[in-house]
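Dear colleague,

Thank you for sharing your sequence with our group. We've completed the structure prediction you requested, and as agreed, I am returning the results in plain text so they can be pasted directly into your records. Please verify that the sequence below matches your submission; if there's any discrepancy, let me know and we will rerun it promptly.
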Amino acid sequence: MTRHPVTVAFVVMIVSAAALTGSLWGADASSWGAGPLATFAAGRWWTVVSALVIPDSPTDTVISVVLAMTVLAYAERLLGSRRVALLLAAVGIAGLMTGIGLHALAWTVTDLRPVVAAEVPVLDPTTAIAGVVMAASAYASTLWRRRMRLVGFAALGLFALYAGDADSWYRVSAAVIGLAVGERLARGRERRTWHRSSTRETRTLLALLVAVVGSGPLVALISGGGRGPLSLVVDAYTQYDDELIERCNRVSAAVCDEQLALLMTRGLGPALLAVTPLILMLVAAWGLRLGRRAALILAVLTLVASAVIPLLSLVDGRLRITPWVDGSGAEYVLWAVATVAIPVTLAMVLFVARGRFPVRATRRAAATVTGVVGVAFLTCASTFFAIEALGRRSFDRDPSVLDLVLLTLRRFLPPSYTNPVGAATFPHHGPALFAYQWVGVVFWAVVIAALLWLFRRVQRPDAGDGRLYRELLERGSDTLGFLGTWAGNRHWYSDDRACAVAYRLVGDVALAIADPLAPKDRRGETLRSFSDFCVEHGWIPAFYSVHDDTVADLSALGWRHIPVGVETVMDLPGLTFAGKAWQKVRQPLVRAEREGYTAVWTHWHELTVTQASQVVAIDEEWVADRALPEMGFTLGSLAELNDRDVRLLLAVGPDGRIEAVTSWMPSWTAGSLTGWTLDFMRRRSDGPNGMMEFLIAKAALQLQDEGAAVLSLSGAPLAEAPDTPADEDPAPLRALLRWLADVLEPAYGFASLFRFKGKFRPRYRGLSLAYRDPLHLPAIGAAVGRAYLPDASRREIVALARTAWEGRR
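Please find the predicted structure tokens below.
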């Protein structure tokens, strides 16, 4: 309460106002509402205030209180209590006045009566909340600013465009004003206007768009058909008997009989069948969030079908749009946008972004689902046909075999898409009517259940393959050997399964990662055999981030090499942070401990839901603040934390908030755990300084006590050790790598990170790229770039060049 006084006070006002006016108990409080007639015509100007604190129903009261206690409380934390109190009044009133003015203008000037709600006084505290939250978004972190705005305007636009009631449009007005006010208040703050999304975040945002498109017609249906500009799409999901009496008076008796039959066959079953495309899109949205390729296919097919089928139904007369009174034909334009343009555009976006959804189902699971769906269709269709054939007496006329076949096929699609024009035969009672109403629902229920099952049956690397590599790791590995366990890598084994090489296949280049897992006396043999294996398959072999011992063995085989980075290593025996040389490490460590920060060792699977969500938020903020894509290959991301052998070290504040996260990969010598390698490093942008020094120092001291001998701070890509002599005439590839380091530095800060690690007085171990033929260097260089930036587009390559240019100015 002390941290969010304005939020608490606003909640008290909402509940008190609802109780005093009776709306909390369901009484009519519309006399307190605002609108063109109530506020302008009747002169009740005070309604622009009362409408912002009085909800119009018990449901509205609950929704307003929940939103206030969640999003408004978060906005108060960002903006401060004084600003929130001021903006609740100022932005709320400004948004309400603007919405009322536009409402009156649209009604009196443009005569858009089909898409403008009639005068219904508005009572809605969420109008002010929407404005304040959008204003507060300007003060949020990069990640949450994007989420607040995208999710907020998606939800507001959903109700405005599909439901179309005045409340929805007033909220949009307040949100737009709040957004402008927030940008004005936050001017001068260093904020990136455009930012990169991680693959995970991109999936979430695309899934959200699919869910919005799928939910829009449902919103219109729930709101009574909807009055928004895009609510005409509802015509494609409802049976067309709303004007039954009018049509019966002016068209043939056959059409009238058809409409009466449609009325008789309505019910819960046909209603569920009508919204099946929308439910499929929601299912697809869930799968898209998980990166499933099957969900991508489902979403694209459903979106295209939801656009094409109603268009065909409109052309052949099975679907009808009632013209507006002005006869302008604008209703057809809006219908086309809502029903055709939006889903087709979204389908195209998903197709372009298909690389973000690489998680495929296993072939066995795909075959199983195909078989289940096929059997379900044949079973439902044959059962329906048999019931209808046996129940011919329940029809108004004797159907032919062709009639029953067509009727059977139509029962698997939404009714308004497929019902024929003119006289048709329908069952009127008995089992035939029941089957008519439910057979399609049963089939699609089986399909949805099968799809949800399919989303969980994904292709995984060979389990035995991965286990063997880990077994060899534990026999003996260097500090970077654990990189070979990451997703996307393959494994080559010697004939006796005692030696292994982890590699990543990029095009025709096999990039071996780190040193091979092999006894010292068999390392040369292992390198030669792996090279022969690659040549046999038509691949170009290359060894990336290998240490000097491996380079020496490759040089003996006639290979060449070039430095590509430096690993920083701390030797733990006898390590203390005493003396002036350790002052830059010791001071953050002492300060953090004095201020109550603790270093907590854990694993990903041991995190609570709250802790995991904090780690994800820290990572997403870091990714969003990069101007370029998140790098991979030898640089771990959030996905690599979910490994039971990987330990996490968290910096936790006295209030329980996680301020920084590090992950540590194990390494073994002769079967004993002797070292740990730093991989994942993230901290909050608004957190205290020195958290990384604190965590690394605590890790060194704790692991030293556990008996570890080596603490690797991992490799720094494209870095050079401080004592590396400058080449007067460097090799072309090395010159290119140096240039690339300069290009990437403004975006990724590799050099600054390398200098940071220098605080820990490490010893430096060179990392090299080994290659057999200089003619292969262009292909190898391209493969390394694609391995690090697999999702980079042409636009991002241009951004990369621009970043390099700006960094050199």
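Summary note from our side: The mean pLDDT is 79.

Kind regards,
the structure core
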